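Protocol step 4 of 5: obtain the predicted structure for the target chain.
Materials: sequence only (see below). No template structures provided, no constraints applied. The aim of this step is simply to have a reference model before the mutagenesis design in step 5. Sequence pasted as it appears in the construct record:
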Amino acid sequence: MMKKFLCLTMGVVSIVAISGCSNLANSSQITAKSSDNLANKSNITETKVSAVKAFNYQDYENVLQTYVNDQGLVNYAALQTNRSQLDLFNQSLGEVPPETYASWNEAEQIAFLINAYNAFTLQSIIDQDPLKDSIRDISGVWKRRKFVLAGEEKTLDNIEHDILRKDFNEPRIHVALVCAAMSCPPLRNEPYLAQDLDAQLNDQTIKFATSPHGFSLDQEDKRVYLSSIFKWYGQDFEQTYGNKDKFNGNDKQRAVLNYFSPVLDLESQKFLEQKDYKVKYLDYDWSLNKQ
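Step 4 output (structure tokens):
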């Protein structure tokens, strides 16, 4: 009887042991699957974070701080001799995957495109040996010369007209894009950044509105002068700054005056509101914006 009990007990123990081992094995498998799931979730999270991670402008910032002065003028000769950081940055512009660019918000995309336009323009200038006196002396600089941007070949005109002007209602790009001419808006010695973009564009507005290349008025002669940039692209300001009653001139001229007016001195603002003047455009100085 005792033998049967022992045998039965041992059998139960064996079953329990086997069952315990089976449960442990299943538990181990579940744990392994959970670990795999966590690893997969971690990889997905890392991919998403990587996709929206801010673009690195450090090389470009170093270039701007080294070769662009506070007046927005460029030491092209020195940059041409020490161009490696600019070349590395411009190469990195092309390595951004299209899906990463698409994942950015509007401010990130606009900042990226403005920086790309200005950096590719710098490259276009220093690629010339000897340096040209004007960007207009570089054949095909806007329409034929191509750069890789977010995995695709683009010209400077593509960036400005086919993307920035087409995809965004942000007319202030016209005081940020710098075509390497003296009559252009000043080139900032810092990159445009998404978190600072609005403040930077407002600052560019002030700089250009108070510059003889952007705006001037002659109260005695009753003339207001705007940069020729606004003759070419003034219509871009109409959607945001259009005004039918407050200023003189045609639709695009009134829009630009409405855009500039808040940053002008009070005397100039009052003169513009009197509407007793003609709006003209300044001659454009295409000589190189060099130091």
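Step 4 remarks: Residues 206 and 263 are 6 Å apart (CA to CA). Strands lie at 147-149, 152-154, 215-218, 223-226, 278-281.
Proceed to step 5.
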